[in-house]
TrEMBL record:
It comes from Mycena albidolilacea. Keywords: Chaperone, Cytoplasm, Kinase, Transferase. This is Hsp90 chaperone protein kinase-targeting subunit. Belongs to the CDC37 family. Its main location: cytoplasm.
Length: 492
C-alpha cells in the first residue's frame, strides 16, 4: 500500500532552523516575531471558532421560541383575546418571573445574559417599533388595536427570517474556519497511534528540592584568623555561603501547584485538608512542611498575615502527621474531624505560637533591611553565558533585506522595531551605553548600582521593551529585597 505524505504539507512550523537573517537584523528577534505571528493567528482562529459555536448554540435555543410567538400572533391567540393582549402578557411574564437559564459562561443573575432576558429585549424592541409605526400612520382609535397587532406579527416575522439567516451564515463561516484550521497540523492534533491496556502505577512523588539540602551535612568550618576592620560592610557573607543561601531560599519559596492550593484551605478545615491529601499524594513529601513555612515567611513579609497563618496551619498539620507514626495523618484527622476538643486546642495553640514567632522574625528582618543602607538594582543570572545583549550599532539601513524563511513578515514592521531599538538606545545615559557595548554584565551592574531604584527600574523596562537585554529569555533577575519579594522569594 503506498504511503501518503501529503499531510506533511500541512505542518505549520515555528522553528528557527530555516530562518536566515540579514547581518543588520537581529535573528532572535525575527524568530520571535515569526513565532508570535503564527501563535497569535492560531489562537485568534480558535477564539473565533469558539465564539461562532457559542453564538450558533444560543440562537438555536432562541429561534424556536421566537418562531412559536410569531406563529401564535399570525394565527391569532386562543379565544377572543386580542394579539396585543397576548403579546403584553408574554412581556409581563418574562419581566415578573424570568428563568435563570443562560448560555455557558454567562452570569445567570444578570437578566440580559439569560435566554429569557434576550427574548424580553427583542419583544420590547418589536413592541416599541409597532407603537411608533401605528402612531406615525395616524390610525384612528377604533382601529389602533388591530393595526398594532398586525405590526407586532410583521415585526416578529421579520426577526424570525433575520435570525434564520444569521444561523445559516454563522454555520457557513464556522465550516470555513474549521477547514482552514485543518490545513495546519499542530501539537493539539497529535495522538497516540497505538496503545495497550496496561496502565503503570503512579510513581511515588519526589521530595521537594529543599528536603535534600536540609538533610545535607554542613561543611566543617576551617579555623581562621579574623581581623577587625573599621566601617566594615554589614551582612556580606562569603560568596559560597551567599550562593547556597540563595538556592535554599528559592527552593523554600517555590510551592508546587498542589502545595499552593493546599496552603489556601481555611483554618480548621480539617475535612477539606484530609480530602485534598487523599487526592494529591505530592502534598505529603519530604520538604513540604518547610516549603509552607517559607511561603508563610514571605506572605508575612508582604503584609499578608491571614495567608501566612494558613501556611503555618497547613505546615504544622503535616508535621503532626509525620510525628504520629506510619499512619500519623489518619490518626490526626480522625481526632480533629471527630471533634476532640483537647487535641484541637493543643494544635491550634501551637499554630498561634508558631505564627507569633514567625511574625516577630519578619518584623526584625524588616527593621534590619531598613538599616541596611541605600537600595540598588543589580542583575544576576545562574549562567552568565545565557544573557543575550542585542546592542544596536546604528539605525536600520535604507535597504533592508529579510532572509530565507521570513518572506511572509512585514519588512516595515521589522524596520520600525529596529528603529525603536536604536531610538531607545540613544536615550540611555552615555555611561550605560558604553557599558552595554562591552556586553559584560559586571560593567552594566556598575552603572545600575550608582542609580536610584526608580530610575534603574525605568531603564530596565526600556531595555527589555527594546530587546537590548531580553529578561524573559536570559534568566536575569532583580536581587533587591523588593525584587525578590515580587518574584516570590524570601528576603536575602
Amino acid at each position: 500500500m503506498p504511503l501518503n505524505y501529503n499531510k506533511w504539507d500541512q505542518l505549520e512550523l515555528s522553528d528557527d532552523s530555516d530562518i536566515e537573517g540579514h547581518p543588520n537584523v537581529d535573528k532572535k528577534s525575527l524568530i520571535r516575531w515569526k513565532q508570535r505571528d503564527i501563535h497569535e493567528k492560531r489562537e485568534a482562529r480558535k477564539a473565533k471558532i469558539d465564539h461562532i459555536r457559542a453564538q450558533i448554540a444560543c440562537n438555536n435555543v432562541l429561534y424556536p421560541r421566537i418562531q412559536a410567538i410569531q406563529a401564535s400572533l399570525e394565527s391569532g391567540p386562543d379565544g377572543d383575546k386580542p394579539r396585543t393582549v397576548y403579546f403584553s402578557s408574554l412581556v409581563e411574564q418574562l419581566e415578573r418571573n424570568p428563568s435563570k437559564e443562560c448560555p455557558p459562561g454567562n452570569n445567570p443573575d444578570e437578566l440580559e445574559q439569560t435566554y429569557d432576558g434576550m427574548l424580553l429585549s427583542l419583544l420590547r424592541q418589536v413592541g416599541d417599533a409597532a407603537k411608533v409605526a401605528v402612531k406615525e400612520a395616524g390610525v384612528s382609535d377604533d382601529q389602533r388595536e388591530e393595526k398594532i397587532g398586525k405590526a407586532l406579527t410583521e415585526g416578529m416575522k421579520e426577526h424570525v427570517v433575520r435570525l434564520k439567516e444569521t444561523i445559516d451564515n454563522d454555520s457557513k463561516e464556522l465550516e470555513q474556519e474549521l477547514n482552514e484550521q485543518k490545513k495546519h497540523i499542530t501539537s493539539d492534533d497529535m495522538h497516540d497511534g497505538f496503545a495497550n491496556k496496561y496502565v503503570p502505577p503512579k510513581p511515588e512523588p519526589a521530595p521537594l528540592p529543599i528536603a535534600a539540602k536540609l538533610d545535607k551535612p554542613s561543611k566543617p568550618k576551617a579555623k581562621t584568623t579574623e581581623f577587625e576592620v573599621i566601617n566594615a560592610p554589614r551582612g556580606q557573607p562569603a560568596a559560597e555561603e551567599a550562593e547556597e543561601d540563595a538556592e535554599d531560599d528559592d527552593d523554600i519559596a517555590n510551592l508546587t501547584p498542589s502545595l499552593e492550593a493546599f496552603s489556601k484551605i481555611p483554618l480548621k478545615g480539617f475535612e477539606q485538608s484530609f480530602r485534598f491529601i487523599q487526592e494529591h499524594r505530592d502534598v505529603v513529601v519530604p520538604g513540604a512542611s518547610d516549603a509552607l513555612l517559607g511561603a508563610a515567611f514571605k506572605a508575612q513579609y508582604d503584609n499578608k498575615p491571614k495567608y501566612a497563618k494558613k501556611c503555618v496551619h497547613q505546615s504544622l498539620l503535616l508535621q503532626y502527621g509525620d510525628k504520629l507514626g506510619a499512619n500519623g495523618l489518619g490518626v490526626f484527622f480522625k481526632k480533629m474531624i471527630a471533634g476532640d476538643k483537647r487535641a484541637e486546642a493543643v494544635f491550634l495553640d501551637d499554630v498561634e505560637k508558631t505564627y507569633a514567632h514567625l511574625a516577630a522574625r519578619v518584623k526584625l528582618s524588616q527593621e534590619e533591611a531598613k538599616k541596611g543602607g541605600r537600595e540598588t538594582i543589580m542583575l544576576a543570572s545562574e549562567n552568565e553565558g545565557d544573557i543575550t545583549f542585542n546592542v544596536p550599532s546604528g539605525p536600520p539601513p535604507d535597504e533592508l533585506v529579510l532572509g530565507e524563511g521570513m518572506e511572509d513578515m512585514d519588512i516595515e514592521e521589522v524596520r520600525r522595531a529596529l528603529q525603536l531599538r536604536w531610538d531607545i538606545f540613544q536615550t540611555l545615559p552615555e555611561n550605560l551605553r558604553t557599558a552595554l557595548q562591552t556586553e559584560e554584565l559586571v560593567e552594566v551592574n556598575k552603572v545600575l548600582g550608582d542609580m536610584e531604584v526608580a530610575e534603574a527600574e525605568e531603564i530596565l523596562q526600556r531595555l527589555d521593551m527594546a530587546g537590548i537585554i531580553p529578561f524573559s529569555e536570559s534568566g536575569v533577575r532583580d536581587e533587591t529585597p523588593a525584587g525578590r519579594a515580587a518574584a516570590g522569594l524570601p528576603p536575602a
